[in-house]
């Protein structure tokens, strides 16, 4: 089947998509956007998180056909050209990245949190990121990064 959708502002078409194929596979293997990671492929880890029509989803759980006519934004689409988004910058500055496998999903999820709640409490950060697993960092640096990004976006720092 053919699937047509918009990703990061660009119209894309994928041909010969198998009915059981995931949106994650289409993004990574057909559209050339490998930022979203495939760590579990069963909705457990959050490393494949993308926006679908403005709502964060696990791309591994979305059938490619469900993306027909819809708008997707991936971690690659958060930066403004060469200028990183504040969340991406904060992850780098705070050392919130080790192997990096969880990072794209966490960045998208944190980006969404700060859009919805510009000054999130620690409890709100923990709750928002509860579906994103990281086996390297112990999460403290990730929390630091989200606090920093929120403060910067709110103009506090
Ligand atoms: S790869 Fe999608 S949730 Fe883990
Ligand atoms: S940095 Fe390795 S899983 Fe999070």
From TrEMBL:
Record's protein name: Carbon-monoxide dehydrogenase small subunit
PANTHER family: OXIDOREDUCTASE WITH IRON-SULFUR SUBUNIT, XANTHINE DEHYDROGENASE IRON-SULFUR-BINDING SUBUNIT XDHC-RELATED
Keywords: 2Fe-2S, Iron, Iron-sulfur, Metal-binding, Oxidoreductase
GO molecular function: anaerobic carbon-monoxide dehydrogenase activity
Signal peptide: none
Domain 2Fe-2S ferredoxin-type: 1-78
InterPro entries on file: 2Fe-2S-bd, 2Fe-2S-bd_dom_sf, 2Fe-2S_ferredoxin-like_sf, 2Fe-2S_ferredoxin-type, 2Fe2S_fd_BS, Beta-grasp_dom_sf, Diverse_Oxidoreductases
UniProt keyword Oxidoreductase present: yes
Organism: Streptosporangium lutulentum
EC number of this enzyme: 1.2.7.4
Highest taxon of source: Bacteria
UniProt keyword Iron, yes or no: yes
């Amino acid at each position: 089947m053919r699937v047509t959708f918009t990703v990061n502002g660009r119209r894309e078409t994928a041909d010969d998509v198998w009915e059981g194929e995931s949106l994650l596979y289409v993004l990574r293997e057909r559209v050339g956007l490998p930022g979203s990671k495939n760590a579990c492929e069963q909705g457990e880890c959050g490393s494949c998180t993308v926006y679908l029509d403005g709502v964060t989803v696990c791309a591994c759980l979305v059938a490619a056909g469900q993306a027909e006519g819809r708008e997707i934004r991936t971690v690659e689409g958060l930066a403004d050209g060469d200028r990183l988004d504040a969340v991406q910058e904060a992850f780098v500055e705070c050392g919130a990245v080790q192997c990096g496998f969880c990072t794209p999903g966490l960045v998208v999820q944190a980006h969404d949190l700060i859009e919805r709640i510009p000054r999130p409490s620690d409890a709100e950060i923990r709750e928002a990121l509860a579906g994103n697993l990281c086996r390297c960092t112990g999460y403290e640096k990730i929390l630091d990064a989200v606090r920093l990004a929120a403060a910067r976006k709110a103009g506090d720092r």
